[in-house]
Each structure stands twice: as C-alpha cells, then as structure tokens.
Design goal:
434 residues, Cytochrome Bc1 Complex, Chain D, domain 2, two-stranded antiparallel sheet, 2 strands, 48% helix, disordered N terminus, electron transfer activity, transmembrane helix
Length: 434
C-alpha cells in the first residue's frame, strides 16, 4: 500500500482494513473458504478477530455498523472521503483509534470479498486447547506409566566409553604380562622360545589368520567412505539451513506467528508473480508509523533501522526525504536453468508457504533456507502432492477434458482417489526447464 498523502504520513494504512470488510451484505461470488485467506492478506497486520491490536477487535463489527452497510462499503473504498462526511459513528471511531495509528488507505477489495471476510469473522470461534491425558510439571502430555525421562545423557555415554577403554587397555596389558611370563617359564625349562614379534608383525599375522573377517571389514569401510564421499559431492550447491545475517533482524515468529500477519501481506508479489518479492519499507511503515517500540530493546533498535532507511523522523513524525537502501541478503537461490512460479504454487496449487519454507511462524526469527531445493526434492513433491481440483476454476478445463476424452486415463488416476501433479504433467522437463 502507498501512503495517502504527505499530510497523512503518520497513517497506519491497515488500521481499519478489517473494519472495511465487515458488513451484513449477503455472501455470494467468493467462496466461503476464501474469507480466512482474504482476512489474513488484508486485515491481520493490524487486527485480530477476538482482541485489540493496532486496530480494534473485529468480532461484533457487524453490529457496530448495523444500519450503515452502504457507508461501510464506501469507507472501505475511500476512507478519506467518509472521514469528512461528519457521520457521528465514524467521528467517534476516528477519535478513538486514529491517534493510535492514523487513517488507513483505500483497500482493493470488492463487495464479494468483503462479504467473504464478514462470513469468516462471523463464524470464527476460538481454538480449543487439547487437554493432555496426564499432566506433567510443565503441562506436557505423558502416557500413563511412561518414564519421566528415557533419554541417556551425553555425559553418561562418555563415562561408559571411558570405562570400556580402560578395560580394553587393561586386558591388553594382562595379555602382554601373561605372554612374557609364559616365555620366561619356557626359557627356564630349556625349551625354545619363539622370537618376539613387533606390533606390526603381530597385526599382519592376525590379519592373515583372519582373512575372511578382515575382507568383510575392509569392504564395509570402503562402502562407508564411498557413501560419505557421494554425500559430500551431492551436497555441492545445496544450501539447506543457510541463514545469512541481514541488515534488519526481521522477526518472523513475532509477525507471522504472534501477530498472525499473512505471509502475502508483506510478500504480496507471490499472488501474481513468479517471485515472492522483498517488501519495501513503505509496507513496514503501514504498521510502524504508529508502533515505534518493540517487545525488547533489540526490537526497538531494529524498528529504528527502518526509520533510518526510509527517512522517518520520529519526533516530528514526518519524512525527511533522506532515504537509504536496505541491503537485504538473498536467501533462496535457484539455478538459472530452473523455473519456479510462486503464484502458480500458492494461488493455483493452494500450497501453503510452510510447505517450502517450514513453520516460519513459530520456528524462525531471521529466515533461513528450510528445504534443500534440489531437483529430487521438487520431483518428490510433484509425485506425492494431490491436486486440489474441487472448487478450483483453474482445473475445470483439465477435469472436463479428462471426463470427456480420457475416461480410461481418469479411471487409472483415480484408483487411489487422487490426481497428482505428476499425473498432470508435473514431471515433464519443460515444466521447470526452458
């Protein structure tokens, strides 16, 4: 979103995003299941359903706007215009919330999308926490009769290994002593004593005596190091786990997890482009115009870096015009020979971001590369992922073609009840290489 004007530079543009999308108009063109996705894309940056965030909680907003549905739709599409109409409810709402974040910008949602979000919020119910069968001190579930801790600590493993080594060396010493004693007895009795062999000679003699065992061990060792070498070679160019230091330590756990902001709110290009895109600092300022302190001193320092990059003076609450580029470090790098389209996977295929990027809403602060992004990994996904064809208009033509002209082929695909990406040509070379 872009700022409304210079005079409204303090605007938190999503402050009333969710309010925009709540009315009592009938739900029609957009599927009900789209309501949650639309809410996360347009509203979740500043609103939660059940509690206040940057903007007010959205549960009950239909009642608050009762009798003013047309005005609500106008507010959604042009809040600056409605602001000057002098409506008592709007004036009261702005007096309470505008000082906290400013006036929001106009939203690019149509009436059907507003109805879908209304339906989602009206039907929303808080998640019920699962009650563990038996409790432990920290609240974790534990099966009846299970041991409190079945793991073996590394310290005990080291102790056991040390004891075994002491026993081995002790036994070797006892064997050497017995050998010397036996040689002394034979010598005292005048019998011929075999010449003493060096350690290397004894080892060679042992190997010759146990040729089969030595051959098996040698083969196993050769196979082991061959596998290690193969894995090392196959790991060239694979950067799974790569987490570079970024100029701003953006906390994904806080934003996508605690605040439940949808990934595509910031990475909006994923909705229409092959690239997910890096959000501009203007997107950050939608919220951080009003939120200038983090949950810790480190968070506040990172917010200050945003202000420095975009040229925002916190004291005067205005832009200085002195901007600095944020030099983000690219994390995910596919080779030039591979084609990947975010919109195709997220919008058409309805694949959640977490499938490729991991549980970023709970496991990550600064993002890193979760998946290996190898060809084998992509092929496995295309082979095992079932296409969601029901209610997905993109696949209507494919489904019709299979029904009308490929009944035997369709029957083959549906033997297991699913059609995979591979079945629709997801293994063709030209799908990913061009």
């Amino acid at each position: 979103m872009k700022h409304i004007s210079k005079e409204h530079s303090t605007v938190l543009k999503l402050l009333w995003v969710a309010v925009l999308v709540f009315g009592v108009a009938a739900f029609s063109g957009v599927h009900a299941q789209d309501g949650e996705k639309l809410f996360k894309q347009n509203c979740s940056a500043c609103h939660k359903v059940d509690k206040d965030l940057v903007g007010p909680a959205l549960k009950g907003v239909q009642e608050r706007w009762a009798g003013k549905e047309e005005l609500l739709y106008e507010w959604i599409k042009n809040p600056a215009k409605v602001k000057d109409m002098g409506d008592p409810y709007v004036d009261k709402m702005l007096a309470e919330w505008m000082p906290k974040g400013g006036l929001m910008a106009a939203q690019l949602v149509n009436n059907e999308e507003i109805d879908a979000i209304l339906k989602y919020v009206a039907d929303w119910q808080p998640a019920v926490a699962a009650v563990p069968a038996t409790g432990t001190a920290d609240g974790a579930a534990q099966a009846p009769g299970a041991a409190a801790d079945t793991g073996i600590s590394a310290v005990w493993l080291i102790i056991v290994a040390f004891i075994l080594l002491v026993l081995i060396f002790s036994l070797v010493g006892v064997r050497s002593s017995l050998t010397r004693l036996n040689s002394a007895i034979l010598d005292s009795e005048g019998e011929e004593v075999a010449p003493a062999l060096s350690s290397g000679e004894r080892f060679k003699a042992w190997m010759w005596k146990n040729k089969t065992f030595v051959a098996i061990i040698s083969i196993l060792v050769l196979v082991y190091f061959t596998v290690l070498g193969y894995d090392a070679l196959m790991g060239i160019g694979v950067y799974q786990g790569y987490t570079p230091e970024q100029p701003i330590k953006f906390n994904h756990t806080l934003h996508a997890g605690t605040n439940e902001i949808a990934c595509v709110y910031c990475h909006s290009s994923a909705l229409k482009s092959k690239h997910a895109g890096i959000p501009s600092a203007n997107v950050c300022m939608n919220c951080h115009t009003g939120i200038n302190e983090g949950q810790s001193a480190e968070g506040t320092a990172e917010i200050a870096k945003i202000y420095d990059a975009i040229g925002w003076d916190l004291e005067s609450r205005s832009y200085t015009g002195e901007e600095k580029p944020i030099k983000w470090v690219k994390v995910h790098n596919l080779p030039d020979l591979a084609y990947f389209n975010h919109a195709q996977h997220y919008v058409v295929g309805e694949i959640e971001c977490q499938e490729c990027h991991g549980q970023i809403q709970q496991d990550y602060t600064v993002a890193g590369q979760f998946a290996p992004l190898t060809m084998g990994w992509c092929i496995d996904c295309h082979n095992n992922t079932a296409v969601r064809m029901d209610g997905n208009g993109y696949y209507d033509e494919v489904h019709e073609r299979l029904v009308d002209h490929g009944k035997e082929e369709l029957k083959k695909y549906l033997e297991d009840g699913t059609i995979s990406v591979k079945d629709l040509g997801g293994w063709e070379c030209s799908k990913c290489h061009y």
